Amino acid sequence: MLGIINQGHAPKGNPDPGAINPITGLRESDITYLLGEEMAGFLRAAGHEIIVIQSDSLTEIVAAANDNDADYFISIHCNSAEDPAAEGFEVYTTPGQTAADPLATAIINQTKAAFPETKFREDWGDNDPDKEANYYVLRNTVCPAVLIECGFISNRKEQTNMQDPAWRTKMTAAWARGVTDWQVAL
Ligand SMILES: [Zn+2]
Question: Which domains does the chain have, with CATH numbers?
């Protein structure tokens, strides 16, 4: 299996750091970098070939998946909202039932099992928990593609979690288990 892991926003935040916590200054691009590296380690240990890419160019990100004939694509982001109380975990796919939906469901199921106290923001309109949006990197990748919003960087509790290496390890291990669950069910 060849997987592409895309860490959302630009390397070292230059020029695009993504969302920033207004109080602590924690930057999305720094958290997605760490999560992506760690997730890649777990999946390589499971025998997958992994390309990790963080880039300001969405076309470059999509090309990494399509030119390499990837089997799956995962983009990692942190959510943000003006309301500091907004919180929760969500996974996006393109609209409708696609080959990405079982991958999203497997990742959500493992993350729920590992984090029973976390709020999961779900859309059961099509009988599975993923949310749906036509994000560029989902719409233009040929392989099953999901976008994980690991929490709200604007939320005090969740941004504290993001800074905790143990939380990141537990989170990325759960995502990797989701990917391997999906793989065995193919
Ligand atoms: Zn983002």
Answer: 2-185 (3.40.630.40)
Task: Dump pLDDT digits (tens) for 86-125.
Answer: 999 999 999 999 999 999 999 999 999 999 999 999 999 8
How much is the pLDDT for 184?
A: 97
Ligand 1 mean position, distance from CA 173 (Å): 21
Residue 79 alpha carbon to ligand 1 centre in Å: 6
Distance CA(14)–CA(71), nearest Å, equals 29
- Expressed in angstroms and rounded, the spacing between residue 12 Cα and the centre of ligand 1 is 14
- b/e for 98-125, b at 16 or more Cβ within 10 A? bebbbbbbbbbbbbbeebeebeeebeee
Query: What does the pLDDT look like over 10-59, one tens digit per residue?
Result: 999 999 999 999 999 999 999 999 999 999 999 999 999 999 999 999 99
